[in-house]
Amino acid sequence: MKGVSDQASTVERRSAIVHVLAQAGSVEVADLVARFGVSAPTIRRDLAWLEDEGLVRRVRGGALAAEDRGPTPAPEDAAARVGRAAAGLVQDGETVFIGAGGLTLELARALAGREPLTVVTNSLAAAQLLSTHSAHTLILTGGQLERRGGGLGGQLAHVALRDLRADRVFLELGGISAVEGLTDDSLPQAELAQHLLGLSAENVALVSPRRVGRVAAAYIAPAAEVDVVITAREADSAPLWDLTELGVRVVLV
Question: The whole model's pTM is what?
Answer without folding.
Answer: 0.71
